[in-house]
UniProtKB/TrEMBL annotation:
InterPro entries: AAA+_ATPase, AAA_lid_3, ATPase_AAA_core, ATPase_AAA_CS, MIT_dom, MIT_dom_sf, MT-severing_AAA_ATPase, P-loop_NTPase. Residues 1-58 form the MIT domain. The keyword Ribosomal protein does not apply. It comes from Sus scrofa. GO terms for cellular component: late endosome membrane. Its EC number is 3.6.4.6. This is vesicle-fusing ATPase. It holds the Pfam family Vps4_C. One of its GO terms (molecular function) is ATP hydrolysis activity. Belongs to the AAA ATPase family.
Length: 363
């Protein structure tokens, strides 16, 4: 029987119970129930500790602090299986997207360079109290380039291991396995540091805690809180990068752990003009700079994704006219602009701006 493992699990359970009493139990009856269970587990843990202590006295040498762990601890099959499952989240082939490919968003790019690129290139600058950011949240309306920025980070951070995870990577039908996956994700990131954990749509995993949510969702959030900034976890060299369209639903404790919260707004006129140029690329056209600036003025309130759709639709206009056409004109672009509506409405924009005023940082 593996008494050492049982003792470790009891101690881990007691930590969870204490965290629940402190942060999650809202009434006295729930606290009393958890406290009783906690005392029961503590009693069992003490008995196991006494048993193991007596066992060591009768002939077994104590394990030194720097001694290598036993084979069965090193080759824990369950841990190995979970880590292999998570290795699929590692981005092996880097996307070929550079900072220059991202139009505008200079503030966000500078913050990401500070957090990711500078500590790798100039580690001697980040000593003492000057430490790199360990949590960055990118928030803003949909289609503004949050995930695209993360791809640029994966490309530019050559020496970093980039983990791109979603809720499907961390959710499991087995009780207790989801939080183990979260723990193993952070352990993997620490083993392969410098590393970046990118969580797209982080609100799906870390929404506000309430009475109606499931026990599994609550435990995942608790594990995230512990791993991101918990006692005994050294996250040096590990950056958690989150992206969300609805930041106001994030749990306040998770929000605090994202030390830098960067608002990714809808593109300004200059950025929209640059987006038109980038999306047109090398496609033959007769648009002048004045035409591009006019289109940029007319697309006020459009996101980067909307502009991409306008350009793609206008590229199809000559094909619709005659399949042999090779150029498209300003009139094609204006026709597409008339039929394509922005995907971000004013109400969503007001909510995001309100969140930015309360908790965010202008980019």
């Amino acid at each position: 029987k593996n008494y050492e493992e049982a003792l470790r699990l009891y101690q881990h359970a007691v930590e969870y119970f204490l965290h629940a009493i402190k942060y999650e139990a809202h009434n006295d009856k729930a606290k009393e129930s958890i406290r009783a269970k906690c005392m029961q587990y503590l009693d069992r843990a003490e008995k196991l500790k006494d048993y193991l202590r007596n066992k060591e006295k009768h002939g077994k040498k104590p394990v030194k602090e720097n001694q290598r762990p036993r084979r069965d601890q090193r080759d824990n099959p369950e841990k190995k299986k979970l880590q292999e499952q998570l290795m699929g989240a590692v981005v092996v082939e880097k996307p070929n997207i550079r900072w220059n490919d991202v139009a505008g968003l200079e503030g966000a790019k500078e913050a990401l360079k500070e957090a990711v690129i500078l500590p790798i290139k100039f580690p001697h600058l980040f000593t003492g109290k000057r430490t790199p950011w360990r949590g960055i949240l990118l928030f803003g309306p949909p289609g503004t380039g949050k995930s695209y920025l993360a791809k640029a980070v994966a490309t530019e951070a050559n020496n970093s291991t980039f983990f791109s995870v979603s809720s499907s990577d961390l959710m499991s039908k087995w009780l207790g396995e989801s939080e183990k996956l979260v723990k193993n994700l952070f352990e993997l990131a620490r083993q392969h540091k410098p590393s970046i954990i990118f969580i797209d749509e982080v609100d799906s995993l870390c929404g506000s805690r309430n009475e109606n949510e499931s026990e599994a969702a609550r435990r995942i959030k608790t594990e995230f809180l512990v791993q991101m900034q918990g006692v005994g976890n050294n996250n040096d060299g590990t950056l958690v990068l989150g992206a969300t369209n609805i930041p106001w639903v994030l749990d306040s404790a998770i929000r605090r752990r994202f030390e830098k919260r960067i608002y990714i707004p809808l593109p300004e006129e200059a950025a929209r003009a640059q987006m038109f140029r980038l999306h047109l690329g090398s496609t033959p056209h007769n648009l002048t700079e004045a035409n591009i600036h006019e289109l940029a003025r007319k697309t006020e309130g459009y996101s980067g994704a909307d502009i991409s759709i306008i350009v793609r639709d206008s590229l199809m206009q000559p094909v619709r006219k005659v399949q042999s056409a090779t150029h498209f004109k300003k009139s094609d672009m204006l026709r597409s602009l008339a039929t394509t509506r922005p995907t971000v409405n004013a109400d969503d924009l007001l909510k995001v701006k309100k969140f930015s005023e309360d908790f965010g940082q202008e980019s």
